[in-house]
Amino acid sequence: NAGVTQTPKFQVLKTGQSMTLQCAQDMNHNSMYWYRQDPGMGLRLIYYSASEGTTDKGEVPNGYNVSRLNKREFSLRLESAAPSQTSVYFCASNRGVITYNEQFFGPGTRLTVL
Amino acid sequence: AQSVTQLGSHVSVSEGALVLLRCNYSSSVPPYLFWYVQYPNQGLQLLLKYTTGATLVKGINGFEAEFKKSETSFHLTKPSAHMSDAAEYFCAVSLRGSTLGRLYFGRGTQLTVWP
Questions:
Q1: Which of A19, A46, A101, B83 has the smallest CB count inside 10 Å?
Q2: Beta carbons of B62 and B78 less than 8 angstroms apart
Q3: Is residue A62 exposed (0-12), middle (13-18) or buried (19+ Cβ within 10 Å)?
Q4: pLDDT tens digits for A15-39?
Q5: How far is the alpha carbon of A38 from chain B, nearest alpha carbon, in Å?
Q6: How confident is the model at residue B19 (pLDDT cuts 50, 70, 90)?
Q7: For residue range B27-71, what is the model confidence (pLDDT) as tens digits?
Q8: Chain B residues inside the 8 Å CB shell of A31
Q9: Under an 8 A CB cutoff, do A41 and B101 touch?
Q10: Which residues does chain A have within 8 Å of residue B98's beta carbon, measured at their own beta carbons?
């Protein structure tokens, strides 16, 4: 049981390049999330997917797109990377049921945009 | 939108001293409350959570937190700090009854433990 996995762990891009961050979970969770973490800002929600087939914008969606490929996988795409997108990106998942909403986090992707 | 305030972006304590990390939330209905810890270059791990019932919640590594509805607070404490507690700590809330499971995070508190 690997939990939440993310690839790649590190990435350096040039301004204008594109890339996709991959996330997968093996806990049969319904909901998945993408956050970015910047110093002094905590974690800010980029996009989330409450269930397979649905996606919604979070607090900071500009410059990003997502795909909920199936129940396991939720990818984040940067179409034209900008230096302001230099950050650490975390994927998370939870069961999504109306009890408690504990999220499980992946190890993160450290992205630098030059 | 939910608001989570962590007082003090940096807290320093000596090994063996009391650790107190503060968290306040803004919500008319008490939310679910969480504390997560992040060690350097790692993802977030759940320390403890409050959902219902007893307001004093015990978590891993000797940490505990108390939910105080009247103060809209959920402060994290540990009686005696250890060097291995040095990390960043995040308070988070989610809305009761939500099927979306969104978490709202505070900005984090970096804990330094001096020998």
A1: B83
A2: yes
A3: exposed
A4: 999 999 999 999 999 889 999 999 8
A5: 9
A6: very high
A7: 777 789 999 999 988 889 999 999 888 899 999 999 999 999 999
A8: 100-101
A9: no
A10: 98, 101
